[in-house]
């Protein structure tokens, strides 16, 4: 009887150990999942083009801490070369770079077909300078001095928008313009009109809501996302740039109309 009791006791102990081992393996498995995901997920690369050493180092450290791979340049020529050859996921581009301005770098990248998001860093606050940046192909801008939390939020929002899939069947015709969602191309009188990723998304949103009065808040939330830290003036600058590309007379628009006290309305 004692022998059978000892066998039963050993058997129960083995069962307990197996349950504990199973629980331990389960715990290890769930602990390893995020580690393996982090190790196998490619980090997004950001090219920082900034000639101010202190600002550049601050940006580099904060972006690395946020989980990005960071490349740096201090002049326009090197920025253009790295943008062409390395195709980073996003470029933080200072406007006042030695050798070649940020405007020219942006324009040359777009002319070469590079479509990575470009976020301009500028100390200028004039509306003309911002619109000019959009005309050269910038997706957004941040005015110095800026909050690093705001900048990181802008970057995350832009990269999130860049990864979205668009409705490939969408095709909109208005005036002498055609906006094709499959090719992401705007043509006017048969001639292709260059658009940045953000300009395309904004115009497509307007076309999709033809005839509806849209508040600035709604447009910012739908096109930029609820996490966007920019102001309504950012939207106004993009609208001014779009009007210059699709309207016969930007000062007297027929398609993107301003609704005072509300926002905008698109009319085919």
Write a brief structural summary.
This protein has 268 residues and is α/β, with parallel strands linked by helices. It is built from nine helices and twelve strands.
In N-to-C order, the SSE pattern is HEHEHEHEHEHEEEEHEHHEE
Tell me what the CATH architecture of the largest domain is.
3-Layer(aba) Sandwich
Shape: extended
Biggest sheet overview = 5 strands, parallel
Oligomeric status? single chain
The total of helices stands at 9
Q: Can you list the strand order of the major beta sheet?
A: 2-1-3-4-5
Compute the average pLDDT: 83
Regarding CATH, which class of the largest domain?
Answer: Alpha Beta
Q: What would you report as the Rg, rounded to the nearest angstrom?
A: 26 Å
What's the helical proportion of residues? 40-55%
The CA-CA distance between the termini, in Å, is: 94 Å
CATH superfamily of the largest domain: Response regulator
Secondary structure category: alpha/beta
The tally of strands reads: 12
Amount of beta strand: 15-25%
């Amino acid at each position: 009887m004692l022998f059978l009791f000892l066998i039963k006791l050993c058997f129960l102990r083995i069962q307990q150990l197996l349950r504990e081992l199973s629980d331990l393996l389960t715990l290890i498995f769930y602990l390893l999942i995020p580690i393996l995901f982090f190790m196998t997920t490619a980090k997004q690369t950001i090219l920082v083009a900034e000639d101010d050493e202190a600002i550049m180092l601050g940006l580099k450290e904060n972006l690395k801490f946020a989980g990005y791979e960071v490349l740096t340049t201090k002049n326009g020529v090197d920025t253009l070369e790295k943008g062409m050859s390395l195709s980073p996921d996003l470029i933080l581009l200072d406007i006042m770079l030695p050798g070649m301005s940020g405007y020219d770098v942006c324009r040359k990248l777009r002319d070469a077909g590079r479509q990575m998001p470009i976020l301009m860093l500028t100390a200028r606050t004039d509306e003309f300078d911002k619109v000019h940046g959009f005309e050269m192909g910038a997706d957004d801008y941040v005015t110095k001095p800026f909050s690093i939390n705001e900048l990181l939020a802008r970057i995350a929002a832009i990269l999130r928008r860049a990864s979205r899939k668009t409705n490939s069947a969408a095709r909109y015709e208005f005036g002498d313009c055609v906006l094709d969602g499959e090719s992401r191309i705007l043509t006017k009188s048969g001639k292709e009109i260059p658009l940045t990723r953000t300009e395309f998304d904004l115009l497509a949103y307007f076309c999709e809501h033809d005839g509806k009065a849209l508040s600035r808040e709604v447009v910012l939330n739908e096109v930029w996302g609820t996490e966007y830290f920019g102001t309504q003036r950012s939207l106004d600058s993009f609208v001014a740039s779009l009007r210059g590309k699709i309207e016969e007379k930007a000062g007297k628009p027929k398609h993107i109309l301003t609704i005072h006290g509300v926002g905008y309305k698109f009319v085919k």
